Amino acid sequence: MKVLISGASIAGPVLAYWLSRHGVDVTVVERSPALRKTGGHAVDLFRPAMEISERMGVLSEIQAHATGTTQMIVHRPGASRPTRLDYVKIMGAMSDRHVEIMRDDLSEIYFQAGRDDVEYLFGDTITSISPDGDVTFEHNPPRRFDVVVGADGLHSGVRRLTFGDNVSESFLGGYLAVVSVPKDMARDGEMTGYFKPGHMAGIYTADHLDDARAVYIFRPGRPLDYDYRDAERQKAQLRAAFEHMSPEVDRWLDEVPRTPTFYFDAITQLEMTTWSRGRVTLVGDAGYCPGPAVGGSTSLAVYGAYVLAAEMVRAGDDYAAAFAAYERTMLAPVVGSRKLARVNAKTVVPTSGWGIRALVGVGQVVSLLPLGLVQSLARLNTKGVRLYDTMPLPNWPASLTG
C-alpha cells in the first residue's frame, strides 16, 4: 500500500512512523522547505500520548526537551503583589503522567524517529487529488497513491481539496500569538503572566532553548478583520491589543518587528461529521481541531494518528473499513475535546476582574493542596479536566503496538 501524508508537524510524522514500521510505503509532503520553526508554543502530552511516544522509543528524548516549568508568577489588576502558583500541581490535576514541550522540539523528535523509513518531500504541496488516487503537486511530478491523509493543520489544504470550503468552523472568541524574544527576558522554570479582562500575556523559556517565547491570548469584543496569511497586519493587531498592559509586556511587544519567528491565529474549532471521503482521510487539527491553546489538540493529534495507523494496518487494503473504525474510536474523544475547549476558551482568559480573581484563586487552592489529593479529586471529572488522561489506548494485538 502506498500512502501520502500531507503535513510534517505532529500527527503526520507519528502516523508515518507507525505505518512504515508495518510495511506501508509512506511519503510525507510538507509545504515548508524544512521542518517548521514558527515560534511554536509549549504543548502538553498527557498519559495516552506519552505511552504512544514510549512505544516509539522517544519518550526519554521528549522528557529531556521538556520546558521544565515548575512555577507561574501571575500579575493581575488590583493586586499589590504577584501571585506564585505551583505549575506542577496544576498540571498534575489534569494528568498523572504529563510533559510540557515546545511544539518545534516535539515535531523534530517525531520526525527523526521515522525519517529513515519514510520519504519526505519538503517545499511542496498537493494541488489536486483524483478519486482513483492520482495526486498532483506544485513542484514534483504526479503520482498515484492508495490513500491520502491530511495532517496539515487547521488550514488544511487536503481538507479544502476534498471537502471544499463548506466545513463548519466555530470561532471561540479569541486569538493566539506566539513570538520569539531574547532568552534573558524570561527565567528558566518560571512562566510569568499578566492578566487584564479579556487578555493574557505570558513568557517562558527552557534551559535548552536559545530564546524565550512570549505568548498572547486575547478575546476582543468582536472578531478582528483578520487574515491568517498577513503577518504584518497581525503584528499591528497584536500591539493594539496589548500595548500599555505593563512595562514588561511592552518590552516583549518591542521585539515583535524583529522577531525571527511569529505565529498568530484565531482560536477556531472544526466541527466535521466525518473526516473521510473516498480514499482520503484527515487526522489531528486538519480534521478535528478543538481550538489552538485551549483544547489539548497535540495529545489528540498523537492519539488520532496512532489509532488511524493501527486501523489501517489491521484492515490491509480495505481503507474504507479502516477509516470507519478510526472514526468510531475517535468520536467520543473529539466530541469531548470540543466541549472542553469551549469551556477553556472562556475560563483561561476571563473577561472580567472577578473572573481573573476566581481563576487565580483556584490556582492558589490547588497549589496549597497535596498533589495526591489534587489528582484524586480531579479523577472524578473524566469528561472535563481529566479528558485527555482517560482516552483508552485500544486493546490491539501485540504486533500493532510493539
UniProtKB/TrEMBL annotation:
It holds the Pfam family FAD_binding_3. InterPro entries: FAD-bd, FAD/NAD-bd_sf, FAD_aromatic-hydroxylase. It comes from Mycolicibacterium septicum DSM 44393. GO terms for molecular function: FAD binding. PANTHER family: MONOOXYGENASE, OXIDOREDUCTASE-RELATED. Residues 2-311 form the FAD-binding domain. This is FAD-dependent oxidoreductase.
